Known about the structure:
7-stranded parallel β-sheet; 3-stranded antiparallel β-sheet; alpha/beta
Amino acid sequence: MYGAERQQLLAQRARRDGRIDVTAAATEFEVAPETIRRDLAALERQGLVRRVYGGAIPVERLDFEPGVSLRDQTNAAAKERIARAALDLVPSRGTVLLDAGTTTSRLAGLLPADRELTVVTNSLTVATQLATRNNYNVHILGGRIRGTTLATVESWALDVLRGLTVDIGFFGTNGFSAVRGCTTPDPAESAVKAAMVAASRKRVLLADHSKYGDDQFSRFAELAEIDVLVTDDGLDEAALDELEQVEAEVVLA
């Protein structure tokens, strides 16, 4: 197959699937990963894709934010491992903040019923999972509900968060990097995430490797503000070397 033909197919796959994974594409086309990276670089120069960690996404979907069900299916096994690793950081009693996100929601589902926790969340999904547990005091932040993420945002949530101090906060993100920090597409949700970070004594970021380098529109925290980053072992050596330059402890699930 000629390179131009392969690049055309890659562009079509990017539009169809929303993302190209370098390793999977190299296996499918029976070429080296470096060849796929060169193809993606050529497509990026043509304005058809934007390269991100591990692959590329089509430019027409840069402003697209997938819903909860689609995001939950993406890298599901890695998210499950990350949630289980984060469980070791949850205290037996105390106050916990759970941000809206598919990995934080998985963590909520794993929380043991016998712990005595006060949980604050802006996630309808998290609140629903924990509301019936006898030992849990669950507080859901008010505000407008974003249908895409099922998270509450804007002033009602921000006003409450300004008066809170919680022992530990667990946060999801759409993208993270050593340079740009933790980012998300929506400014309203970013503002609530930033207020949650400020309200937490200890901050834990839960993010699978595919989000590294995929910087989004609005930053809610620098990585220096994060105490522990729980990710999976899909990060390569270059990414790990970059993360060593920040102060956060990195846990590979």
